Amino acid sequence: MFRTERVTITVKVNNNPVTFHKRRVTGLEIKQTAIAQKVKITLDCVLYKVKPDGSLGASIGDAEKVTLRDCEEFRCVTPDDNS
Questions:
Q1: Which is it for strands 46-50 and 9-13: parallel, antiparallel or unpaired?
Q2: 60 and 48 in contact (C-beta within 8 Å)?
Q3: Alpha helix (H) ranges present in 1-83?
Q4: Residue 34 to residues 1, 26, 37, 47: CA-CA distances in angstroms?
Q5: What is the distance in angstroms between the CA of the first residue and the CA of the last residue of the chain?
Q6: What is the pLDDT of residues 28-52, one digit of tens each?
Q7: b/e burial code for range 8-25 (CB count within 10 A of at least 16 → b)
C-alpha cells in the first residue's frame, strides 16, 4: 500500500513567499504559481535560481524541470532589464 502525504513547500520568488503542493515543477509552473499568488512578475520574465551567495545561477527555461526545496529563492527578471 502506498501512502501519499500532501507536500507543502514554500520558496521565494522576487522576495515574496510562494507555496507549492508538489516538489517537481517546471520553470513555467513556478512563474504561473507566483503570479496566481500575487507576485508582480510576467510570464515572459527570465527565471533564475538564487545561489547561497546571493548571485544568480543559470536561467531556468519554461519547460525545464526543477525539484523544489523549502526556503529556496528564485528571481524573475524582465527580458529588457540589464541589471
A1: unpaired
A2: yes
A3: 27-36
A4: 34, 12, 5, 11
A5: 51
A6: 999 999 999 999 999 999 999 999 9
A7: ebebbbbeeebebeeeeb
User: 9-77 has which CATH code?
Assistant: 3.10.20.90
CA distances from 46 to 21, 52, 53 (A): 23, 19, 20
Which one-letter amino acid corresponds to residue 26? T
CA 66-68-70 angle, to 5 degrees, is: 165
Domain limits, the chain: 9-77
- Mean pLDDT, residues 58-82: 92
| pLDDT for the residue numbered 79 | 82
**Reported pTM:** 0.88
**2 contact partners, CB below 8 Å, separation of at least 6:** none
